[in-house]
Amino acid sequence: MNAIHRSYEQILNILYSIGSYWSVALSLWIVADVLGRTLLNKPLEGTAELVAYSLPFATFIQIPWILRQRGHLRSPLFDDWLSDGAKKMFNAFGSLIGITVFSMACYSIWDPMLSAWENRETIGDGALNLPAGPLWLAILTGCGLMIVEFIMQMLSQKKILEINQ
């Protein structure tokens, strides 16, 4: 189980790193576009299409790692007045909601993803046309890994609850 666990964490780390480097590269591209537009009156072609493609790509391949690190936004409202047992139950319930939401997302993404690959669909209608299939696959992968992460968190909450009883 440790090898599987390490492999899973390594996959999350790699995806997070890809998303991070992609975000930095995208930021540099946007700066170059703004400078070209402002100083030379010549923007970089395809910037709008690249940004529209990149934001969901980077977001969905990074969110499982962020959830794993518990780096998502949390309201301290409940943490301040709930007991430890209630917090754990609340977290387990949140994981169940996450599993449900991302399962529905996977279900709804599947057909558009297959269609994008089969029909070689592209995103963009101007200077840059990017293949839609890889973007749909990245979104599906991120949603699938979110389901795995929520299951792991829910199971860890169950173990914590059993230990405390």
Describe this structure in words.
By secondary structure, this protein is an all-alpha fold. It has one domain (2-164). The protein is 81% helix and 2% strand. It has a two-stranded antiparallel sheet. Strand 1 (122-123) and strand 2 form a beta hairpin. Helix 1 packs antiparallel against helix 2 (47-68) and helix 2 (47-68) runs parallel beside helix 5 (132-164). The longest helix is centred in the N-terminal third of the chain and has 38 residues, at 2-39.
Q: How many individual domains?
A: 1
Strand order of the largest sheet: 1-2
Mean pLDDT: 89
Work out the radius of gyration. Answer: 20 Å
Largest sheet: 2 strands, antiparallel
Beta-strand share of residues: under 5%
Low-confidence spans: pLDDT under 50, at least 5 residues? none
What is the global morphology? Answer: globular
For the record, give the distance between the C-alpha atoms at the N and C termini, rounded to a whole number.
26 Å
Helix count from the secondary structure assignment: 5
The number of strands is 2
Helical content (DSSP H or I, runs of 4+): over 70%
